[in-house]
TrEMBL record:
Residues 50-424 form the Aromatic amino acid beta-eliminating lyase/threonine aldolase domain. It comes from the Bacteria. Homotetramer. It comes from Mobilicoccus caccae. This is Tyrosine phenol-lyase. Keywords: Lyase, Pyridoxal phosphate. SUPFAM superfamilies: PLP-dependent transferases. It is an enzyme of class 4 (lyase). It catalyses: L-tyrosine + H2O = phenol + pyruvate + NH4(+). Belongs to the beta-eliminating lyase family. Its cofactor is pyridoxal 5'-phosphate. The lineage of its organism: Bacteria, Bacillati, Actinomycetota, Actinomycetes, Micrococcales. Pfam families: Beta_elim_lyase (PF01212). Its EC number is 4.1.99.2.
Length: 460
């Protein structure tokens, strides 16, 4: 394995450790069979290096833990909510916030508020739970991301950009009055963690203003998006990530936030908005589905940790190390000839499973098979992001997305570069014997969000 130089050390010191244990291959073979070849169903204690997700798996700082002890657990009017509200307004620029138990709760609320049956929601590539809530509310989702995002090998600095021509065509075809809102993800997860440029955000804002369309954001990884703008977009090299975060959000009417990512907490999320009418409706619904508008299904200690974390996540030194560690793993794989999505994204390295396993047709779920085999080979848990995640269309057929990927997702402030080297070695070794991997077929398939609980078996 080639050695990729890393000169940037972790911008923190470790004061608490959690032991992990390597299992035997026999134990892992048994475990993956019992899990139905679905890495979501594996016990975490059997995962040597757990790269399933960066959602809720971050290590919290000493300051966050200190604030946890100061959580106000009053049922209504807790000071911990005031702390979160102040942080959201100061760092993100939104005057109103409604907490939810996680980002999924926020997706549900805004879909119920803004969507009426028969309307349309364009977005820069789908995300699984977001699209589910939009479709459940009666909308039709439209992918308006640039074409380059669907090509894993295409080098483009902002593959998450909205294709303005696609957006305009949708407006012309269905009418602006029938577009509930446009949802712009920062960054785009299923494209490989790809960012959106400030120039593109401004252009989408102008189109929304010209047509009276609400501009919303899935801002789950907004800090990582800001880092890429600082690194790649002209005019931002000397601008702090915190300033870029605030500017990019200034163009949006509101956002859904999964605090479990760029707020560096284990649970929590929120809606933030500028429109008081949306705030009133969100407060009405959050009482039904989540809890009081001042806690939204969270304890006061969770609100405190999230308020601290969203500030910490915009720190330049933290982001340089965060994105740098992901890039370190990606470069090790790329140097060894492993097919990955390029450019390397901000939260994960995505293996191109279609290229990795060209002998397995997409309807035999090569990404799912690769994720399962990687666990058996090494104890590294990853996640499928391809045909299984895309689900079925209205006629019951697999959607067969252009990207068939396995996501190696790096938790924030958890693993060292030595862990990344071990992951790279495991993937490289598996690549050398990839011809031995076979496809899978369903033995249990739920009607929605099937990737969470489906079960499979190998095709003989």
């Amino acid at each position: 394995m080639a050695t990729t130089e890393r000169t940037l050390a972790e911008p923190y010191r470790i004061k608490t450790v959690e032991p992990i244990t390597m299992t035997t291959r026999e134990e892992r073979e048994k475990a993956i069979r019992e899990a139905g070849y679905n890495t979501f169903l594996l016990p975490s204690k059997l995962c040597y290096i757990d790269l399933l997700t960066d959602s809720g798996t971050s290590a919290m700082s000493d300051n966050q833990w200190a604030h946890m002890m100061m959580g106000d657990e009053a049922y209504a009017g807790a000071k911990s909510f005031d702390l979160l509200k102040e942080a959201v307004e100061e760092v993100y620029g939104f005057p109103y916030v409604v907490p939810t138990h996680q980002g999924r709760g926020a997706e549900h609320l805004i879909s119920q508020i803004l969507i009426r049956p028969g309307t349309h929601v364009p977005g820069n590539m789908y995300f699984t739970t977001t699209r589910f809530h939009q479709e459940q509310a009666g909308a039709t989702f439209h992918d308006v991301i640039i074409d380059e995002a669907h090509d894993p090998q295409f080098e483009h600095p902002f593959k998450g950009n909205v294709d303005l021509a696609k957006f305009q065509k949708l407006i012309d075809d269905v009418g602006a009055e029938n577009i509930a809102y446009i949802n712009v993800a920062l960054t785009v997860n299923l494209a490989g963690g790809q960012p959106v440029s400030m120039e593109n955000i401004r252009a989408v804002r102008k189109m929304c203003d010209d047509n009276g369309i609400i501009m919303w954001s899935d801002a789950t990884r907004l800090a990582e998006n800001a880092f890429f703008i600082q690194e790649r977009e002209e005019g931002y090299a000397d601008t702090s990530c915190a300033e870029i975060v605030k500017e990019q959000l200034s163009y949006f009417d509101g956002l859904t936030m999964s605090g479990k990512k760029d707020c560096l907490v284990n649970i929590g999320g929120f809606l933030a908005m500028r429109d008081e009418d949306i705030l009133v409706k969100a407060r009405e619904l959050v009482v039904v589905y989540e809890g009081m508008p001042s806690y939204g299904g969270l304890a006061g200690r969770d609100l405190e940790a999230m308020a601290v974390g969203l500030r910490e996540a915009t720190d330049d030194a933290y982001l340089a190390h965060r994105v740098g560690q992901v890039r370190f793993l990606g470069e090790l794989l790329r140097e060894a000839g492993v097919p990955i999505v390029e450019p390397i994204g901000g939260h994960a390295v995505f293996l191109d499973a279609a290229e990795f396993l060209p002998h397995i047709p997409q309807d035999q779920y090569p990404a799912q098979a690769l994720a399962a085999e990687l666990f058996v080979e090494s104890g590294v848990r990853s996640m499928e992001r391809g045909n299984v995640s895309a689900g079925r269309d209205a006629d019951g057929n697999n959607r067969n997305p252009a990207l068939e990927l396995v996501r190696l997702t790096i938790p924030r402030r958890v693993y060292t570069d030595r862990h990344m080297e071990i992951v790279a070695r495991a993937v490289i070794d598996l690549c050398a014997k990839r011809d031995q991997i076979t496809g899978l077929k369903f033995v249990y398939e739920p009607p929605s969000l099937r990737f969470f609980t489906s079960r499979f078996e190998p095709i003989a």
